[in-house]
Automatic annotation (TrEMBL):
Residues 10-23 have a biased composition (Low complexity). Keywords: Membrane, Transmembrane, Transmembrane helix. This is Uncharacterized protein. It comes from the Eukaryota. The chain crosses the membrane at residues 58-78, 84-105, 126-147, 184-203, 209-228. It comes from Skeletonema marinoi. The lineage of its organism: Eukaryota, Sar, Stramenopiles, Ochrophyta, Bacillariophyta. Residues 1-42 are annotated as: Disordered. Residues 31-42 have a biased composition (Polar residues).
Length: 229
């Protein structure tokens, strides 16, 4: 009889628990999950890895947007050019996050045709290329990052990476070069950056602007020598 009573009590307890959980579900209240967790740490790690891989084609655009965004936050001032710079970074980063999430949730989303034969990824890359062309031009020549800084490099990084994404450039040709040729290519890139960074101080005639002229001359000589070699 004792065993029968205990089994009856257990059945009544389980029935009461089911009725309570069903009443909570009807009322929209949160329920306590019993048993093992549905997602393991390994599955979470794999999910994060797949989410990161979804941004493979525009990862550098996303990183450059973050660099420019953090630079604007660090030096924030309510000026029109600063507001424009943070809008450039925010729009670019937001588009990248949306594309990355959609590709993660629906693999192949970026390759779906939207307008004619043009995929969604192609349309977004063209838009961001135009967005960064105007954004980088105004941000680095008008303000707020006229001189070399995190924001300056973030803006130019966004333009270069969006151009690479839109046109579809790869680095196979660079990787196939010899070590000496790679050094020359790196010198060419750094010389161009130096020349671009020295234009504004020379034009504005800021303090010690004579050094900007020397930098432009050094960059130009380096380009000529690299082209000859």
């Amino acid at each position: 009889q004792g065993v029968g009573k205990s089994s009856v009590n257990k059945m009544s307890d389980s029935g009461s628990e089911e009725s309570v959980s069903s009443s909570k579900a009807e009322k929209g209240l949160p329920q306590i999950q019993n048993g093992e967790p549905q997602t393991s740490p390994a599955e979470l790690t794999q999910g994060c890895s797949r989410w990161l891989k979804a941004s493979y084609s525009f990862l550098y655009v996303e990183v450059s947007s973050l660099v420019l965004l953090f630079a604007c936050i660090a030096l924030w001032s309510p000026t029109p050019w600063m507001k424009y710079a943070i809008s450039v970074a925010s729009v670019s980063f937001g588009i990248c996050i949306i594309l990355q999430t959609m590709e993660f949730l629906q693999p192949g989303f970026l390759e779906k045709p939207m307008v004619g034969e043009h995929s969604f990824e192609k349309l977004c890359s063209v838009f961001l290329l135009l967005w960064w062309i105007f954004g980088t031009g105004f941000i680095t020549f008008k303000g707020p990052f006229i001189f070399t800084s995190n924001g300056w490099f973030g803006a130019w990084g966004g333009l270069i990476s969006s151009c690479q994404w839109c046109i579809g450039l790869d680095f196979v040709s660079y990787d196939s070069q010899s070590r000496e040729v790679k050094y020359l290519m790196n010198l060419v890139l750094l010389s161009i950056v130096t020349i671009l960074a020295s234009i504004s101080p020379l034009r504005e005639k800021t303090r010690n602007f004579e050094g900007a002229g020397l930098s432009i001359a050094a960059g130009a000589i380096t380009l000529i020598v690299c082209a000859y070699l």
